[in-house]
Design a protein that fits this description.
Largest sheet of chain B: 6 strands, parallel
Oligomer: heterodimer
CATH superfamily of the largest domain in chain A: ACT domain
CATH topology of the largest domain in chain A: Alpha-Beta Plaits
CATH topology of the largest domain in chain B: Rossmann fold
CATH class of the largest domain in chain B: Alpha Beta
Number of domains of chain B: 3
Number of helices of chain B: 22
Shape of chain A: elongated
Structural class of chain A: alpha+beta
Strand order of the largest sheet of chain B: 3-2-4-5-7-6
CATH architecture of the largest domain in chain A: 2-Layer Sandwich
Structural class of chain B: alpha/beta
CATH architecture of the largest domain in chain B: 3-Layer(aba) Sandwich
Chain lengths: 171, 560
C-alpha cells in the first residue's frame, strides 16, 4: 500500500499502567524527531494495563520506524497501527460559545442538534456544548461556531478501536 | 523469606547475579549500601570520578562479556555517570548503574543532591527503575541484569532512595521474572535463512560487513566459517573490529570515514552484502545513498528497530548474529563448496595494491602508523587494547590489527574522549592476566587521567600510550582541511608533562622518541606489570588518512 506523504496515522498501544510510561513514550517521539498530533491515554479492562492512542504525521517509513521504536520500549506491551477504513475513530470536544442574543442562542442549539451534539451548560452569555465524532466533524462544528464567538474549546484528542474481532489487547 | 534491609537485599541480589566487582564512589544517599559492602566479598573499586566508574564498568563488560556494575550517590554523583551511560547505550554495552536517591518523602522537593536521574537517563538507558520499596529490590535487580544482557544489550539504571536502602522488610528472592513487553527474538526465520543462502550462493562478489553485534553475540567462529566458505572478504565497523582476525587474507579491516582503502573500495564492488550486527552508522557508511548502490543487502540484527532505520535493505533478518550466521552457513554448506574465484583474486590484488599508500607528514617525528604496527609486535595476541577518541582512535583502528574479539575496545557511537583509560581499568579488572593498553591522545587522556590514582592504588596496572601532538588532533585535522588552518582552540601546547604526571600518581612514565625505545618501553611496561604512561611526541601536522569527508560517499575517499 502506498500512502501519500505526511498523512495522519493512528497507532494504538497497550502499555504498562504505571508512572513514567507516558514520559518514556513521548520522550522517544521527541528525541527521534517524530511528531505527535494527539495522544490519549486511559485505563483498560485490565487494571495494570493502559491504552494509548497516538495520532502521528509522517510517511510510511517514518511511521514504521515509530512503531518499531515503540515496540522496543520495555513498558510497551503491544503496538499496532489502526487502519482507518476499518476503525471507529472518535474525539470529543467541549465548546463554549458566546450567545449575544436570543437569535444566536437558538441558532447554536439548532446547529448542535444537527451535529448530534448536546448542550451541557447554559448561562446568560454562554452555552457549553459537548460534541463527539471524528475530527472532521468537530472541525466543521467549530467552524460553524466561530462567527458566534468561540470562548473556549477543550478537545480530547483521538481515541479509536478496530471494528469487529480484530483487537489490540493482551491474550 | 528473610528480614533484611533494602541495602542488604541489594548486595545479596548482586551476589546472586555473580557480581564480583563494582566501580563507584560513595556519597550521602548511597551510604547504607556502602555500609553493607564493607563486609561483603564483592570488590569495590574506588574511582576518582563517576564518569570513570561508568566507563570502567563498560570496559569490564566489553572485555569479559559479563555485565559491568557502577555505583554513585544521588545528584552530581548520578549525573556524572550520565556520559558513561550514554556511551554504553550507543555501543550496546551491558552495564548496570546503581544510584543513590534522596529519601522518598524528599523526592520532588529539590532536596540537597537531588537529581531526576530516572528522567535524565530515560533516553540513554535500555530501561531504568526507581525502587519504591525494599521488598521490590530482588526482582528489580534480577530484571535489570536480564534486560542489560539479553536481546540487544545496553545499560540499565536502578535508582535507590535512601530510605528504601534502610527500610527493613521481608525479602524474598524469587527465580522467575516476567516482562510482558520484552521478548527478544533470537531464532532466524527459516525462510529468510534459505533466501539469504541463495542470494549468497549466487553472488559473484559477496562481501561481509560485521559490526559490534558479532562480538556481543560471540559469533566470530561462525563469521569465520561463512567467510571462508564464500571466500567473501570481511570488513568491520569500528565496533566490529576484532570479530574477524585482521591478519586473515580475507580481512579488509575497518570500513567508513576512516576505513582502510581496501575496505572502502571493495565494498563498493560488492553484489551481495551480508551485514551482521551493524547499524549503518553515518561514520560507517558515508553518504548512505552512495553506499553499495549495486549490492543487495542482507541485514541481520537482533534489534528489529535497526532494520530499515538507516539503510534500505533487501533481506532483513531479526535474529541473534551467532544463530543467524550458523543457520546461513549450514544452508550454504549444503549447496556449495569453497572455490577459487576471480573475486578472491581481485580482493587480494587490491589489498596488495593499496598496502603501501600511506601519507607522511611526520616532520621527523615518529609516525603513528609505525608506532602502532610496532605495538602489535610487542603485545601478545590476546592483549586488550582500548582507545581514546580522535586521531589516536582512528590510527589505532587503521594500523593496529586486532586478532580476537573483545581485544579492541573503543567508544564508537558516542565518541567519548576520556573513555579509553577508565575502560582499560575495567578491562584489566575483568582480565587480570592479559596486558591492557590504552592508545591515547594527549587531549583525551587529560580528560580522565585522574584515575591514574585508581590504577596505582587498586593495583590495576595498565599502560597508556600517549600519541602526543600537543593538539586536539582530530579537531586540528578538520581545521586544517576544512577551516583554512585556523586552529581555533585546538592547541594544547604539550601541557602537562605526562612523565611527571605519571610519577605524581606513583606510576612510571617514559618519554620515547625512537621506535626502538618505544618497543622497549612497551615491553618493560607489560613485563613490570606497573601502571605506565608512555609519552611519544608525534607531529601535529599528521592527518588520519584515508578519509571520507562528511556528506560524501565512500568512493570520494581521499588518502593524501
Amino acid at each position: 500500500m502506498v500512502v501519500a506523504k505526511q498523512e495522519s496515522h493512528i497507532i494504538a498501544a497497550i502499555v504498562e499502567h504505571k508512572p513514567g510510561v507516558l514520559y518514556s513514550v513521548s520522550n522517544m517521539f521527541r528525541r527521534r524527531g517524530f511528531n505527535i498530533e494527539s495522544i490519549t491515554v486511559g485505563p483498560t479492562e485490565q487494571e495494570d494495563l493502559a491504552r494509548m492512542t497516538i495520532t502521528v504525521n509522517g510517511d510510511e517509513t517514518v511511521v514504521e520506524q515509530m512503531i518499531k521504536q515503540m515496540r522496543k520500549l520495555i513498558d510497551v506491551v503491544k503496538v499496532r497501527r489502526l487502519d482507518p477504513p476499518t476503525t471507529v475513530i472518535r474525539e470529543m470536544a467541549l465548546v463554549k460559545v458566546r450567545t449575544p442574543d436570543a437569535r444566536a442562542r437558538s441558532d447554536i442549539i439548532n446547529y448542535a442538534n444537527i451535529f448530534r451534539a448536546r448542550v451541557v451548560d447554559v448561562s446568560t452569555e454562554m452555552l457549553m456544548i459537548e460534541i463527539t465524532g471524528d475530527s472532521d466533524k468537530i472541525n466543521a462544528f467549530l467552524d460553524l461556531m466561530k462567527p458566534f464567538g468561540l470562548e473556549e474549546t477543550a478537545r480530547t484528542g483521538i481515541t479509536a478501536l478496530s471494528r469487529g474481532t480484530r483487537s489490540v489487547r493482551m491474550e | 523469606m528473610a528480614k533484611m534491609t533494602g541495602a542488604e537485599a541489594l548486595v545479596e541480589a548482586l551476589k546472586r547475579q555473580k557480581v564480583d566487582v563494582i566501580f563507584g564512589i560513595p556519597g550521602g544517599a548511597i551510604l547504607p549500601v556502602y555500609d553493607v559492602l564493607y563486609d561483603s566479598t564483592i570488590r569495590h573499586i574506588l574511582m576518582k570520578h563517576e564518569q570513570c566508574a561508568a566507563h570502567a564498568a563498560d570496559g569490564y563488560a566489553r572485555a569479559s562479556g559479563r555485565p559491568g556494575v557502577c555505583m554513585a550517590t544521588s545528584g552530581p554523583g548520578a549525573t556524572n555517570l550520565v556520559t558513561g551511560i550514554a556511551n554504553a547505550y550507543m555501543d550496546s554495552s551491558p552495564i548496570v548503574a546503581l544510584t543513590g536517591q534522596v529519601p522518598r518523602p524528599m523526592i520532588g522537593k529539590d532536596a540537597f543532591q537531588e537529581a531526576d536521574i530516572v528522567g535524565i537517563t530515560t533516553p540513554i538507558t535500555k530501561y531504568n527503575f526507581q525502587v519504591k520499596k525494599a521488598s521490590d529490590i530482588p526482582s528489580t535487580v534480577k530484571t535489570a541484569f536480564y534486560l542489560a544482557t539479553t536481546g540487544r544489550p545496553g545499560p540499565v539504571l536502578i535508582d535507590l532512595p535512601k530510605d528504601v536502602q534502610t527500610e527493613t522488610a521481608e525479602i524474598e528472592f524469587t527465580d522467575g521474572i516476567e516482562i510482558r513487553g520484552y521478548k527478544p527474538r533470537y531464532d532466524p526465520h527459516p525462510l529468510q535463512v534459505k533466501k539469504s543462502a541463495e542470494m549468497l550462493a549466487q553472488a559473484e562478489k559477496p562481501v561481509i560487513l560485521a559490526g559490534g553485534g558479532v562480538i556481543l553475540s560471540n559469533a566470530s567462529p561462525e563469521l569465520l566459517k561463512i567467510a571462508e566458505l564464500l571466500t567473501a572478504p570481511v570488513a568491520t565497523s569500528l565496533m566490529g573490529k576484532g570479530c574477524f582476525p585482521e591478519n586473515h587474507p580475507l580481512s579488509l579491516g575497518m570500513v567508513g570515514m576512516h576505513g582502510t582503502i581496501a575496505a572502502n573500495k571493495i565494498i563498493l564492488e560488492a553484489d551481495v552484502l551480508l551485514v551482521a550486527g551493524l547499524r549503518f552508522s553515518d561514520r560507517t557508511t558515508g553518504k548512505l545513498d552512495m553506499f553499495c548502490p549495486e549490492a543487495k543487502i542482507i541485514h541481520i540484527d537482533v534489534d528489529s528497530a535497526e532494520i530499515g532505520k538507516n539503510a534500505k535493505v533487501d533481506l532483513p533478518m531479526v535474529a541473534d548474529a551467532k544463530m543467524a550466521l550458523e543457520a546461513i552457513y549450514q544452508s550454504l554448506n549444503q549447496q556449495m563448496k569453497t572455490k577459487e574465484s576471480p573475486w578472491r583474486k581481485r580482493v587480494q590484488v587490491l589489498k596488495e595494491e593499496v598496502q603501501n599508500k600511506s601519507n607522511n607528514n611526520s616532520k621527523g617525528k615518529l609516525k603513528p602508523a609505525d608506532l602502532l604496527e610496532q605495538l602489535r609486535k610487542d603485545l601478545p595476541e590476546d592483549a586488550i587494547v582500548t582507545t581514546e577518541v580522535g586521531q589516536n582512535q582512528m590510527w589505532a583502528a587503521l594500523h593496529f590489527k586486532a586478532y580476537r574479539p573483545r581485544t579492541f575496545i573503543s567508544s564508537g557511537g558516542l565518541g567519548t574522549m576520556g573513555f579509553g583509560f577508565p575502560a582499560s581499568l575495567g578491562a584489566k579488572v575483568a582480565c587480570p592476566d592479559k596486558p591492557v593498553v590504552d592508545i591515547a591522545g594527549d587531549g583525551s587522556f587529560i580528560m580522565t587521567e585522574q584515575d591514574l590514582a585508581t590504577s596505582v592504588l587498586e593495583d590495576i596496572p595498565v599502560t597508556v600510550i600517549v600519541l602526543n601532538n600537543a593538539m586536539l588532533g582530530m579537531v586540528a585535522q578538520w581545521q586544517r582541511l576544512f577551516y583554512n588552518r585556523r586552529y581555533s582552540a585546538s592547541e594544547l601546547k604539550g601541557i602537562p608533562d605526562f612523565v611527571k604526571l605519571a610519577e605524581a600518581y606513583g606510576a612510571q612514565g617514559f618519554r620515547v622518541e625512537s621506535l626502538t625505545d618505544f618497543s622497549g618501553a612497551v615491553r618493560k611496561a607489560v613485563k613490570s606489570n606497573v601502571t605506565t604512561v608512555i609519552d611519544i611526541p608525534v607531529s601535529p601536522e599528521e592527518n588520519v588518512f584515508p578519509m571520507v569527508p562528511v556528506g560524501s560517499g565512500l568512493k570520494d575517499m581521499i588518502w593524501e
